[in-house]
């Protein structure tokens, strides 16, 4: 089984290689400029002309590459989902490490790297999810489909237990994960540490791993829940 350090290094290299290659292309520059403006102003308030100015291109070039603002937002969503799923895939590998503490350390390192290299993705996710409406529904839908697929793969690999309701479990876990992004400011004030900082992720990850692997409730006598099913 790969060590937590190797999982962390692999996560860092994947994120770095993807960013370095994509940032050289015009569509990637347009997409990243759109993500930044959507995160700062919201989808409705960021015009094609604003995005073109931020990307250093003409509005017609955006139309050439993406056609419409809605399709550009779709490309931004796909980028955000890909980054999240990359990190979660690496975290799943860390979950198979030799110890819970080792897995938690690896996960904290991965998310710290992702937040440093892909900080705009976090800002974009927070803004879109808080705004709600059609764009948020489309983004959440993509994240849910990807999360369900990832969990299904982990079940096949023997890392995650099977469930009788995979879609609802995927939604439950996704909402838990996204809450740390959306409620970061409030959690930081309450706990004195951001759950998105490296130390915050270490502590958050420890509680998460403990909760997911050991559960919260004591199983009462006579419980009839089938073994291995959640």
Structure description:
By secondary structure, this protein is an all-alpha fold. The chain has a single domain (4-212), classed as Tetracycline Repressor, domain 2 (Orthogonal Bundle), CATH 1.10.357.10. It has 11 helices and no strands. The protein has helices spanning 4-22, 26-41, 48-55, 59-66, 69-95, 100-117, 119-131, 133-156, 166-182, 184-191, 198-214. Helix 1 runs antiparallel to helix 5. The longest helix has 27 residues, at 69-95. It is elongated, with a radius of gyration of 19 Å. GO terms for molecular function: DNA-binding transcription factor activity; transcription cis-regulatory region binding. It comes from Streptomyces pluripotens. Keywords: DNA-binding. Residues 24-84 form the HTH tetR-type domain.
Brief overview, please?
The chain is mostly helical and about 230 residues long. The protein has 11 helices and no strands. One of its GO terms (molecular function) is transcription cis-regulatory region binding.
């Amino acid at each position: 089984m790969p060590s937590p350090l190797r999982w962390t290094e692999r996560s860092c290299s994947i994120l770095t290689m993807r960013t370095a290659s994509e940032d050289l292309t015009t569509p990637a520059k347009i997409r990243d400029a759109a993500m930044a403006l959507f995160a700062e102003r919201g989808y409705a308030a960021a015009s094609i002309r604003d995005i073109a100015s931020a990307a250093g291109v003409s509005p017609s070039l955006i139309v050439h590459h993406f056609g419409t603002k809605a399709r550009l937002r779709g490309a931004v969503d796909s980028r955000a989902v890909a980054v999240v799923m990359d990190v979660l895939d690496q975290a799943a590998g860390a979950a198979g490490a030799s110890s819970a503490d080792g897995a938690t350390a690896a996960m904290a390192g991965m998310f710290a790297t992702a937040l440093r290299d892909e900080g705009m993705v976090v800002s974009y996710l927070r803004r879109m999810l808080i705004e709600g409406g059609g764009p948020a529904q489309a983004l959440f839908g993509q994240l849910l489909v990807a999360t369900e697929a990832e969990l299904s793969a982990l079940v096949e690999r023997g890392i995650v237990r099977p469930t009788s309701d995979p879609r609802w479990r995927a939604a439950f876990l996704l909402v838990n994960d996204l809450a740390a992004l959306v409620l970061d400011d409030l959690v930081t004030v309450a706990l004195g540490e951001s759950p998105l900082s490296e130390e915050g992720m270490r502590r958050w990850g420890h509680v998460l791993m403990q909760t997911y692997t050991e559960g919260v409730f004591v199983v009462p006598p006579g419980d009839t829940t089938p073994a291995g099913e959640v």
